[in-house]
Amino acid sequence: MLGAMQHWELRVSGLIDHGAREHPTREIVTRMADGSTERTNWSGVRRDALKMAQALSRFGLKAQDRVATLAMNHNRHLVTWYGATGAGGVIHTINPRLFDEQLDYIVNHAEDRILIYDAVFRPIVERMKPRWKSVEQYICFDDGEFDAWIGAHDGDGEWVTGSERDPCMLCYTSGTTGNPKGVLYEHRSNILHTLYSIQPSAMSSDNRSVIMPVVPMFHANNWGFPWAAPAVGAKLVYCQTNDPVWLCELMREEGVNVVGGVPTVWFAIFQHLDASGQELPPIHTAMSGGSALPRSVIARLMAAGVRVGHAWGMTETSPVATMTYETPDWDEKSFDEKVAYKALQGRAGYGSQVRAVSLDDPTVELPRDGKTAGALQVRGHWTIQRYFKAEEDAAGPEGWFDTGDVALIHPDGSVQLTDRTKDVIKSGGEWISSVDLENAAVAHPDVAEAAAIGVPHPRWDERPILVVVRKQGCSVSGEDLSIFLADKVAKWWLPDAVEFVDEIPHTASGKISKKDLRDQFSGYILPA
Ligand code: AMP
User: Above 90 in pLDDT, residue 510?
Assistant: First the structure.
């Protein structure tokens, strides 16, 4: 016997239908790169997405065909998410910062049929066109081209229907080795991730929310904001360029109360505020993820009365899997205790599970004792099972997916990331967390960015060195930093050397590239 309730396939088109029906006039605002401001609303996005679906049908798009975008955050890009998925296709958001080899690989691997791009990325398109064999049509978002393409239709159509398990979105993640790998989200996984992410214990959004996703739309499902916002009738505020001056202006002008950005975005915002002597605009929630949010930043946000939502996740987890949500005894905690708690990577929400297993023997699950670090694994309704077109599953038979992160889990379930499996430094048989060292170092007022890597050592196997970018006009020395770190990390963790550089290499998604840094410092001779 089946239950006797209604069954509706969980498809993302239902989100925009809801937004347009219940919150038709709630706005989507974009500050374009030329400084102009564009406004639409959920009703307008739905209408344009339906027009785009008609345009795609005219083009001959078949179910599950890939529609690629090479674009920053803006309203038209948002329309393509709903237009492509509503036409039964798969939206493939491409990271324009990838190298040519990776761009070549992913477009051909995805077999994208249409590619829609921002004018600023035209040089990439022109350069790559001869190598992108599958793309039949290119459309520019700007100069009226996209508007004319969809404008040839009246929007008087319907979404393509199908199974909730159909794919709807493709995001490639570029590892440090090998080719990028495609994560193929389903309608259902995106809806379940949406229902999770809007909860108070996650991103806490509702009809009053004015959300500014600073995270790029091409990165990790834009943290799910485009799906979640119409579900609750939130206003969305996009900025095509990530200039902190514009971001702060927009926050003030549009009444933004929720901002989602990686730690470097927060660093840039605070640098701008310090330089200009301005206060943080009156937001109530700061979401951060993608890399560890240092305590100093958390303390500064919390001192300004901002709720911090430090999340952990990956492209493979749609992306949010854990979040630091407030505990029942929150009001009894001291400020420092709250900051320390928020510096962890958070607890799994319903729909995701986490565990740590031994680094030496993955069959051994480690206790949640807040001490024993191991390989972090995750499973759940919006965790990957298999990469796009891969022959083998990426997750085990019970769904456990090896994240490549090293973490310990506290008794209350809080995850604390200590490293990437590949970045952890092994000294004298003991693990040193490069992340902890970096977090401690960036708390120094003169430090803009810091990265710890292991370099070979004849006796200890590896010893840490710290690579530091000073803030402009600052003159902190290696010795100053060692003194500063002395009471913050174990004595044997203290870096053997501090090297100052103008710039630390970053990956296409803006994270510190330890691989490039290790290459840069290969052959490094430690001081005697
Ligand atoms: P990506 O798929 O590019 O979003 O990268 C996912 C990886 O980013 C994770 O496996 C972690 O290594 C890292 N990461 C994500 N969130 C956090 C966080 N809150 N703290 C530390 N590292 C994080």
Answer: no
191 closest CA partner among 18, 403, 400: 18
Task: Write down the pLDDT at residue 97.
Answer: 87
For the chain, give every domain's residue range: 423-520
Tokens of 291: 């890399």
Distance CA 54, CA 50 (A): 6
Ligand 1: atom nearest CA of 420 is 12
Classify residue 501 by burial, with Cβ atoms within 10 Å: 0-12, 13-18, 19+: middle
Interval 463-487: pLDDT, tens:
999 999 999 899 999 999 999 999 9
Residue 522: burial class (beta carbons within 10 Å; 0-12, 13-18, 19+): exposed
Asked if 209 and 235 touch (Cβ cutoff 8 Å), the reply is yes
Q: What are the phi and psi torsion angles at 343 (to 5°)? A: -80, -15
CATH number of 423-520: 3.30.300.30
Mean pLDDT on 365-386: 97
What is the average pLDDT across 232-251?
A: 96
pLDDT above 90: percentage of residues in the chain: 84
Q: Return mean pLDDT, the chain.
A: 95
Ligand 1 mutation pick, 222, 314, 317, 514, max ligand atoms within 8 A of CB: 314
Peptide bond into 464 cis (omega under 30): no
The encoded tokens of residue 92 equal 């493939």
Q: Which residues line ligand 1 (CB under 6 A)?
A: 173, 220, 289-292, 310-315, 319, 345, 403-405, 417, 420, 509
Could you give the CA distance from residue 171 to residue 318 in angstroms, rounded to a whole number? Answer: 9
